[in-house]
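Posting for a labmate who doesn't have an account.
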Amino acid sequence: MQRVAASSLFGKSNRLRELFLFLCRRKAADPVGAVHEQEIGVEVFSRRPDYDTTQDAIVRVQVSQLRKKLEQYFASEGRDESLLVEIPKGAYTPVFRNRGAETGPERPPAPPAPAKAPLRWRFAVVLLLAAAVILLLAGVFVPWGPKSAARPAREVDHLWFQMFDNGRPTCIVVSDAIVGLFEDALQYQLSLNEYRDKVFERLMNERLRDPAEKRRWKDLNASYFTHFSDSRLAATFSILNAGRSLPTEIMFARDFTVTYLQSHNLILVGTRRTNPWVDLFEDQLNFRSGFVEGDPMTSYFDNRSPQAGESSRYAALWTRQGYCRVAFLPTPNHSATVLLISGTDMPSSEAGGQFINSEAWVQKLAAALNVGRHSKFPFFEALLKVDYMTWNTLKFELIAVRTHPS
């Protein structure tokens, strides 16, 4: 265990090393017991005991990376090790075996695997399920019947009507979850131009050496996946617009083009890493997002003009707290409007969506901007601090507000 953990392959990844040592010690303490995802999330990644593994995939992602590291180690630095450590797919409990143990009696051939559905059909199923989720959410929030949904609370309705009732349809752009994982694999953040031009294969060839890994990412980069929280926010925002009979479209980030800015209002949901179109507006903002690769990774907002009591930088603390910027801006030609909900990560972005849809928080925002009962909201930026440890209850606070020069 110590030789593997001390190898150069684990030298730049404290997180994977800690995960590896935890799994091995857990196996030694309970040789016949299985280790579970929830336990790993709590013990290694400081998650709450009741955290939702269906929405937080950190354990699955990190164990997948660990499997690759172990394969690489025993094929290179550890090629003379007599004992191998493996983590079978679909499990989290490590298996120890002698290197020559595979040369035993021949096993009967496995039954042929069922043919996989064509890729396009699998994508269609994913999209169909996403549509079902949105319809289900609409069923939760909107009473069925001939009448439209009950109007949201007064302040939310006031703000929402002002933002998007300008004769233009609204396009909600949800994040591209795959691109965030792709950037992690490359240890590289794509520019907006690279994302727009879809240069994924070129970047794979430049930055990845393993042919099998290249093939995996070629398949993954052809996939369309977004975070469930983004789908939930898109459903909520669509319902708000439906209450005012405002037309709304929902679009995946990879299908968006700047031509929509000439004809649509825009809602961008997600981090700068998973929704690179946020970069179109970064230069106009006081709170600017940034990200630094490494161990640990650092995601932050820089405060260009700190006021009394404010920090010049608000950096997320991994597994503890994050930040979200909610900004209401005009489009470049001032013909429509833009709402940005961009957090340091997924839970922070979800907190921003809850903030802009909460009567109590919109009232606090109106007070901070000195907006009276019959006054218009100015273009603005709001910065939220989000407590990860209580994300399930969406605990956050408003820590800074700015009016936009426009």
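Reply:
Got it, the structure tokens are right above this. Residues 103-129, 135-151 have pLDDT under 50 and may be disordered.
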